[in-house]
Design goal:
By secondary structure, the chain is mostly helical. Helices cover about 70% and strands about 0% of the residues. It has 2 domains: about 50 residues, Orthogonal Bundle (Arc Repressor Mutant, subunit A), CATH 1.10.10; about 150 residues, Tetracycline Repressor, domain 2 (Orthogonal Bundle), CATH 1.10.357. The protein is built from 9 helices and no strands. Helix 5 runs antiparallel to helix 9.
Amino acid sequence: MGTITDGRSTRWDEHRATRRRELVEATLRAIRQHGAGVGMDDIAAVAGTSKTVFYRHFTDRAGLYAAVSESVDARILRDLQRALGVSSGADLADVDVSPRALIAAAIDSYLRLVERDPEAYRFVVTAPLLDAPSSGDPAGPVTSHIAARLATVLDEALLAAGRDPRAATVWAAGLVGMVRAAADQWLSSPGPMPREELTDHLTNLAWSGLASAWTPQEQR
């Protein structure tokens, strides 16, 4: 027997999902208006509602922080797909670009978010809504997810070059970590270089180490 879906339940779930997206967007507006250290009172005021409504949809401030982080994460990945000419929802592993172009696109997509929405980036990195962040990096889920998606692409590229793909996960994590460290310094610099120039520097740095590993074994 098939499962009977309650139409009212489905509509309520859709309503809740829509409301959560609206509240996340309102939170991002408050972050841009008040800075990364924004508090719940300011967030609720920008949303035109109460803190109770936020807690009803996100349980607590940690839940809201996680939802905003997921939104920022998704924007970086959408920018990467756009840079690679991949349609939304498509598998990045199917992209047909050179490994170096892929790395450059990944770096630029991360830096583009930092440049375009610096307070949202600071909010994710510093986690001001968390009273006492748990051990570890509060922004870890965002960078880990980006690294995981990048690792999938690197894995496919290494296989295509006849190379051992086991290093893909480590490379992806190292690449994202390098870019994040450089982005943090870039964001705090009083006279930052243009994003395009920083992308080139970081791409050259990363590719100088990765290029030899991409050469097919028989050509070495």
